[in-house]
Task: inverse folding
């Protein structure tokens, strides 16, 4: 990253009292804290994918969920064993109740005007796969519809946390 060693950048960092240390790109041991965090996130994401039976194409969603979990767990390196969330926001996470099993089967209510069959006796929910919390608001869940291959958010979701959703994607 040659832009990090220019004279202008060095002057800017010096004004902000930030020291610049240049290391070889292959020297992973020189940044052990970041490497350990990356490995932890990778391990969590891999466990989420394997446990859900979802294919590797859902890696980004697994990493998003892994990051949400990691940031809400206590860390011994933080004062008082606080979580990164608590260190940043100043209070413990208050959204644990929203977390569900990653990749589980869920059923999302489908509006009557969007259903193929509008009879009162036909199914009113479609099977989907839960992929995490919505970034848009604090009530929605991020899901994948394997029938239409679309990602979307919804507040009207019923979860089957004991059933992996990977089988829906493979069909």
Result:
């Amino acid at each position: 990253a040659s832009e990090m060693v220019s004279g202008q950048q060095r002057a800017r960092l010096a004004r902000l009292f930030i020291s610049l240390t240049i290391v070889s790109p292959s020297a992973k041991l020189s940044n052990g804290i970041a490497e350990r965090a990356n490995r932890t996130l990778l391990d969590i994401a891999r466990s989420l994918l394997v446990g859900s039976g979802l294919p590797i194409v859902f890696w980004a969603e697994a990493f998003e969920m892994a990051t949400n979990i990691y940031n809400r767990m206590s860390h011994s390196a933080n004062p008082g064993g606080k979580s990164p969330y608590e260190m940043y926001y100043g209070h413990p996470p208050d959204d644990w109740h929203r977390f569900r099993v990653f990749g589980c089967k869920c059923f999302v209510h489908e509006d009557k005007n969007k259903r193929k069959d509008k009879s009162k006796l036909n199914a009113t929910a479609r099977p989907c796969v839960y992929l995490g919390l919505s970034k848009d608001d604090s009530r929605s869940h991020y899901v994948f519809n394997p029938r239409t291959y679309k990602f979307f958010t919804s507040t009207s979701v019923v979860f089957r946390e004991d059933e992996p959703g990977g089988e829906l994607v493979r069909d």
